[in-house]
Design brief:
By secondary structure, the protein is an all-alpha fold. Helices cover 89% and strands 0% of the residues. α1 runs antiparallel to α2.
Length: 74
C-alpha cells in the first residue's frame, strides 16, 4: 500500500508540474485530493477486513484451546 501511495503522489506531482494555468493547477489539485480520499477509504476498508479476519481466527483458536483444555482433568 505504501509503495502504491508513493507512486500516486509522484504521479500527482508530475501532473501538477505540467499544469498550464492556475485554473488547471487548482483542478488537478482537486482531483488529487478526491483520488487520495478514495484510496484512503479503500485501504481503510481493506485493513478493517483483514483485522476482522485475524480477530475471528484468533477467537476461534482461543475457543478451541479453551474447549480442549476443559477436557483435560485438573
Amino acid at each position: 500500500m505504501v509503495q502504491a501511495q508513493w507512486k500516486r503522489n509522484f504521479d500527482g506531482m508530475e501532473r501538477l508540474m505540467h499544469a498550464k494555468s492556475v485554473h488547471a493547477f487548482g483542478a488537478i489539485q482537486g482531483e488529487l485530493v478526491r483520488e487520495n480520499l478514495e484510496h484512503i477509504l479503500r485501504d481503510s476498508h481493506s485493513i478493517a477486513e483483514s483485522s476482522m479476519k485475524a480477530a475471528d481466527e484468533a477467537g476461534k483458536l482461543l475457543s478451541a484451546m479453551t474447549d480442549h483444555g476443559a477436557d483435560v482433568p485438573a
